């Protein structure tokens, strides 16, 4: 084959750039708040290239800089971390969301809200049945079960992660923070909170402890956050949700950009 013509070369480059930009958006969804440096390390590209894609995604309204309380990060300016916007999440969602929402609204009007609630529990029961054997095989501890639950949720498109939540001095583990960076039914759940409630109850049954939902994508947060106590007597600390997103300041995503 001969050399590419300038026009074809530009087309190939545009396709390649588009693919990388999509991967950057996906990483922000799965790991946000995340910095350009952290994305570059995971994708194996330059930080300059990642920043170019982040600027483009920001201009398109798909991501935004994460506003968090100032923290001590050592020398150098604080790293800029990014999360998906509502538009960014919708861009990853199924095009059938509008149809599903309309159908459930019709069901609510014609039959009643109890019918929507019953449907939400039936929907959640489908993944609960599939997850149960895998989660139970992880052992009896909520920590181990949460890790496996995050893994299977990610396979189903929820971009989930599990992290221990400890006191500032690291002496005591209060519980586990289960995060979902993406929700395939976000638009439906925004209109019908019964889906979030049914999911929380399913998590409690799978993990064997009463979990507490701290934030949801459906209510405008950048991530769904669920507190999983290490025992039935544990309770989440009295702190703002944003302070729980990265419980360990030494997380690689939190490093300052030089």
TrEMBL record:
<feature type="region of interest" description="Disordered">
    <location>
        <begin position="235"/>
        <end position="258"/>
    </location>
</feature>
<dbReference type="InterPro" id="IPR011991">
    <property type="entry name" value="ArsR-like_HTH"/>
</dbReference>
<dbReference type="InterPro" id="IPR036388">
    <property type="entry name" value="WH-like_DNA-bd_sf"/>
</dbReference>
<feature type="compositionally biased region" description="Basic and acidic residues">
    <location>
        <begin position="239"/>
        <end position="258"/>
    </location>
</feature>
<protein>
    <submittedName>
        <fullName>HTH domain-containing protein</fullName>
    </submittedName>
</protein>
<dbReference type="InterPro" id="IPR050313">
    <property type="entry name" value="Carb_Metab_HTH_regulators"/>
</dbReference>
<dbReference type="Pfam" id="PF12840">
    <property type="entry name" value="HTH_20"/>
</dbReference>
<dbReference type="InterPro" id="IPR036390">
    <property type="entry name" value="WH_DNA-bd_sf"/>
</dbReference>
């Amino acid at each position: 084959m001969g050399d590419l013509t300038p026009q074809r070369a530009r087309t190939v480059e545009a396709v390649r750039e588009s693919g990388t930009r999509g991967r950057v958006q996906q990483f922000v969804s799965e790991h946000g708040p995340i910095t350009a440096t952290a994305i570059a390390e995971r994708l194996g590209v330059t930080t300059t290239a990642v920043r170019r894609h982040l600027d483009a995604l920001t201009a398109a309204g798909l991501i935004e800089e994460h506003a968090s309380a100032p923290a001590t990060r050592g020398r150098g300016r604080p790293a800029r971390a990014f999360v998906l916007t509502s538009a960014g999440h919708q861009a990853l969602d199924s095009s059938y969301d509008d149809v599903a929402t309309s159908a459930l609204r019709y069901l609510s009007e014609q039959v009643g809200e109890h019918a929507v609630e019953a449907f939400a529990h039936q929907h959640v029961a489908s993944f609960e049945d599939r997850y149960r054997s895998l989660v139970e095989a992880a052992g009896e501890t909520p920590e181990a079960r949460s890790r496996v639950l995050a893994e299977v949720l990610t396979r189903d498109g929820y971009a989930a992660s599990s992290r221990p939540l400890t006191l500032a001095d690291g002496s005591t583990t209060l519980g586990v923070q289960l995060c979902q960076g993406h929700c395939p039914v976000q638009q439906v759940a925004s209109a019908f909170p019964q889906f979030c409630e049914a999911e929380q109850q399913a998590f409690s049954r799978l993990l064997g402890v009463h979990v507490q939902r701290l934030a949801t994508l459906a209510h405008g947060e950048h991530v769904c956050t669920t507190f999983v106590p290490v025992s039935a007597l544990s309770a989440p600390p009295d702190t703002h949700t944003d302070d729980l997103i990265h419980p360990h300041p030494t997380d690689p995503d939190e490093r300052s950009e030089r």
